[in-house]
């Protein structure tokens, strides 16, 4: 068994972001394998990142030291069961990125006694700017914990979560979170266009604004509320916008959306 071979089971959107992030950060492509049933996705992954892509999960997993389970929650059981004989024989470190699915479910589907780390990354991993929450089951030793952490550190920031039940909240906040920012970008662009800006101009102004604001949040060390107050001149334009957001219940809308995503994670664990 190769010490450093990583097998991705599933080569879709999130696997692609992680593989791209790993390769960009100097991980040798020949140490990465992917199992992906869709031929075009296999070809694109091999072409773009130089990784070995295979059709069947056991083919990619055989001999790999770490398995990254990157299939949809709905097919996770069948995929794990197809890998159970190999898991029992080789005892890899199993890293799941699936929403909702618990370490106990993965362990049981793989036949039991497996070291399983449940993680929740996000797509900015492609740029090394991801955020990943991680939870380890009791079979994971310190060396395996570090291996999982270092895998996800190649994709950005990592945070260990002590209580697995909180992984659904991590999923709702940072796993799905990039989509909320993209939705805000769509809405701001459309609103700018509605006020008469050319589409290209609206897009450029919105994306630089989001980038600049995110950098201020990250680099100033100041709370979001303080940064917001500094933009908000009394009686000015920002105040008019913020009062409109508050009157329309933006905080409640965000709270309800994140609660809905958290609930959905729990349903996925029940096969929903
Ligand atoms: N898209 C995202 O931003 C994030 C996704 N995730 C998790 O990542 C997992 C994958 O999600 P996406 O990449 O968005 O979905 P996706 O549908 O793009 O990727 C899943 C891939 O698995 C492949 N697949 C299906 N059956 C397979 C099998 N038996 N063996 C190998 N591959 C198989 C599919 O052909 C597909 O390409 C999900 O469990 C999701 O919860 C986690 C964090 C963020
Ligand atoms: O939407 C989903 O279910 C996955 C998990 C987090 C982001 N995408």
Largest sheet: 8 strands, mixed
Look up the CATH topology of the largest domain.
Rossmann fold
Q: Mean pLDDT, as a whole number?
A: 96
Name the CATH superfamily assignment of the largest domain.
NAD(P)-binding Rossmann-like Domain
Q: What is the SS-derived class?
A: alpha/beta
Classified by CATH, the class of the largest domain is: Alpha Beta
Number of domains: 2
Number of strands: 8
Gyration radius from CA atoms, angstroms: 21 Å
Q: Give the helices and strands as they follow along the chain.
A: EHEHEHEHEHEEHEHHHHHH
Shape: elongated
Distance between the termini: 36 Å
Low-confidence stretches: none
In the CATH classification, which architecture of the largest domain applies? Answer: 3-Layer(aba) Sandwich
Ligands bound here? 1,4-dihydronicotinamide adenine dinucleotide, (2S)-3,4-dihydro-2H-pyrrole-2-carboxylic acid
What does this structure look like?
With 272 residues, the protein is of the alpha/beta class. It is built from twelve helices and eight strands. It is elongated. The mean pLDDT is 96. Bound molecules: 1,4-dihydronicotinamide adenine dinucleotide and (2S)-3,4-dihydro-2H-pyrrole-2-carboxylic acid. The site of 1,4-dihydronicotinamide adenine dinucleotide (NAI) has 27 residues, from helix 1 and helix 4. This is Pyrroline-5-carboxylate reductase. It catalyses: L-proline + NADP(+) = (S)-1-pyrroline-5-carboxylate + NADPH + 2 H(+); L-proline + NAD(+) = (S)-1-pyrroline-5-carboxylate + NADH + 2 H(+). It is found in: Cytoplasm. Keywords: Amino-acid biosynthesis, Cytoplasm, NADP, Oxidoreductase, Proline biosynthesis.
């Amino acid at each position: 068994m190769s010490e450093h071979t990583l097998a991705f089971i599933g080569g879709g959107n999130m696997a692609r972001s992680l593989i791209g992030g790993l390769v960009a950060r100097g991980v040798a492509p020949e140490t990465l394998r992917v199992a992906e049933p869709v031929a075009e996705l296999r070809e694109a992954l091999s072409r773009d990142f130089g990784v070995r892509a295979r059709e069947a999960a056991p083919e990619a997993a055989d001999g790999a030291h770490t398995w990254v389970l990157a299939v949809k929650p709905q097919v996770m059981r069948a995929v794990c069961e197809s890998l159970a004989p190999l898991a029992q024989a080789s005892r890899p470190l199993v890293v799941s990125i699936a929403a909702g699915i618990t370490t106990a479910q993965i362990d049981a589907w793989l036949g039991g006694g497996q070291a399983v780390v449940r993680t929740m990354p996000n797509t900015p991993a492609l740029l090394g700017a991801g955020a990943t929450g991680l939870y380890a089951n009791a079979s994971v030793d310190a060396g395996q914990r570090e291996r999982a952490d270092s895998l996800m550190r190649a994709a950005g920031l990592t945070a260990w979560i002590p209580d697995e039940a909180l992984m659904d909240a991590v999923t709702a906040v940072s796993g799905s979170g990039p989509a909320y920012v993209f939705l805000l970008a769509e809405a701001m662009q459309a609103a700018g266009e509605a006020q008469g800006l050319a589409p290209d101009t609206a897009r450029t102004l919105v994306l630089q604004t989001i980038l600049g604001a995110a950098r201020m949040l990250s680099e100033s060390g100041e709370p979001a509320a303080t940064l917001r107050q500094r933009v908000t001149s009394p009686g000015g334009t920002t105040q008019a916008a913020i009062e409109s957001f508050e009157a329309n219940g933006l905080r409640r809308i965000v709270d309800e959306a994140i609660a809905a995503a958290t609930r959905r994670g729990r349903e996925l664990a029940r096969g929903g």
